[in-house]
Amino acid sequence: MPPRTTPSTSASPATDVLFRILIGGIAVAIPFATAAWLGGNAVTFLTDTGPRAPFQPADALLHPHELWPNTGHTALTIGTLVFPITLLLATAALAARLYLRHKSGSKGRKAVKGMATRRDIEPLLAKQITAKAQSLRPSLAENDPKRIDPKQTGILLGDLAGTRCEVRMGYEDVAVAIMAPRSGKTTCLAIPAVLNAPGAVLLTSNKAAGDAYTATLEARGKVGLTWSMDPQQIAHAPREMWWNPLADATTLEGANRLAGHFVAASVDASNAGDFWSKAAQNVLAQLFLAAAVDKRPITDVMQWLAFPADRTPLDLLRDHRFDAVAAQLKGTVEGPPETRDGIYETARQYAACLLSADIAAWITPQADVPEFKPTRFVQTRDTLYLLSKDGGGGASALIAACADSVMRTATAHAERAGGRLDPPMLAILDEAANVCKISDLPDLYSHLGSRGIIPITILQSYRQGQKVWGDTGMDAMWSAATIKVIGSGIDDPDFADKLSRMIGDHDVETVSTSTSDSGTSKSVSMRQERIMPADRIRALAKGTAICLATGMRAAMLTLRPWYKEPGADEVSAASARASKTITARAIAKAAPAQDDFGQAA
């Protein structure tokens, strides 16, 4: 006897399609009929041909002349047919436009399954970041949290992807940002941070026009003084300041740090410890100390380097009771000539920028311009712009030395002020691997945040940091950073895989369907899968970034460029004015040279 067939109770595909068509038709017909009723009443009112009809949308669509018998045929056709169609098409077009805009704007910016949700990064959101700011800053402690400007509570990093929740790093965090060129490191991180900083700001850069310098110069000038150190004339800034690099070199430790900046600017971390580099650093430190204790300009060091037999630095060291240092210098000078000459020639190369009169003018006493003093700067809302070209050699050594002096001075002032700066000082080290090679920056990261000094080191790649600070140094800075921001353009496969492993895995549900003579069965299994594989990190969309915060799950951020924020028009106009000023100064400097060339020709 054949098996009995049980009729299926599920709807057939054709029935399902018809049902959907029916629902869709109703969804269109009701608004269309309602629009026809509104249009009919509107033309009746405008033509003054009778009273308004009651709400009968079906009759308005099918039998309009019965509702409005006194209204003309043409007018009624416009009101009950043309108007609804036009309204329907306009609504559909608007909806399509909004959908496409949303789809385009959210491409690559949606929440990623397995990454941090709002609950996971609560300490970086408004409520907790405000409470944290009140505990860190006595000036905010007594204020109503609802009345505190968010800019006073932390540095905006972006929005949590898929939401409008602002994610901020607090004023005790220290950050490292690894972002490729044109991935938003300046427009989305550096410029907004400078514009909204509550206290003093230190910014290093290798560009001027159209960059953070021009975008923030005018705005920061309204809250404090702006100091521009531009020894290589990137912005063609007039020399309106001078800074004494020997002010912190009156001790052997300070002199050795200053010499270390000249060495770091000229050699990579892998070569900084060889014999010639170390010996040259020692000689530079001894000569810097001799000049500093006698209050001489740093340019005197180049004269002593040119003539190793000059006994002036030896006498100065002995006069100020640095006998041991003088003995070491004497030992080098009186050593084998070939060794001495090699050491001094290496030191001359490291300090070669001091031979330039244009550069030396920024670091030697000038009667007609004020002296930049870090001790005063760290107590104000002033802004210091340190500009140098890529591979600037000794010029970048001066930039690194000045930045280091400011941060160390700020640390000392914070210790005297109860432990922290209030308001905090922001140090944005943009292009740090090119223009601000502070050799022990990874070590400084361990305590700067606790003093209210907030460094943000911006690099183009992880390997760039390894080249400057070595594998150990870069790993130390990466580990010490409480906030890590990774933007688009990560093309290093090893680093991308490292990030992928740090972001972690998540459970993925796999459904398997099998069919046999006895029927169809489904089974569900779980497997581990990378939340963001290395190839997906490499393809990270512009305008997005991964945020790794200490003790929290990795979060996907939607970056917020300054030109999309309130007040962007004013900032843009100010940037344009500053850029034009730079261009005008460049042209003015070039004109005499052209005239001289023409006369010579």
Describe this structure in words.
This protein has 601 residues and is α/β, with parallel strands linked by helices. The protein has a domain at 17-105. It has helices spanning 13-47, 57-62, 64-67, 73-105, 126-136, 138-141, 185-195, 212-221, 252-266, 275-293, 300-306, 312-319, 323-333, 337-350, 357-360, 374-377, 394-416, 432-435, 441-444, 462-480, 493-503, 534-538, 568-600; strands at 155-160, 166-169, 175-178, 201-205, 226-229, 383-387, 425-430, 453-459, 483-486, 505-516, 519-530, 544-549, 555-558. Helix 7 runs parallel beside helix 8, helix 9 (252-266) crosses helix 10 and helix 10 crosses helix 14.
What key phrases describe this protein's structure?
cell membrane, 601 residues, TraD/TraG TraM recognition site domain-containing protein, 23 helices, T4SS-coupling_protein, membrane, disordered N terminus, alpha/beta, transmembrane helix, 11-stranded mixed beta sheet, two-stranded antiparallel ribbon
- Please state the CA-atom Rg, rounded to the nearest Å: 34 Å
Q: Give the percentage of residues in beta strands.
A: 5-15%
Q: State the helix count.
A: 23
The end-to-end span amounts to: 115 Å
Residue runs with pLDDT of under 50 for 5 or more positions: 1-11, 104-108
Which structural class should the secondary elements be placed in? alpha/beta
Largest sheet: 11 strands, mixed
Round the mean pLDDT to the nearest integer and report it: 87
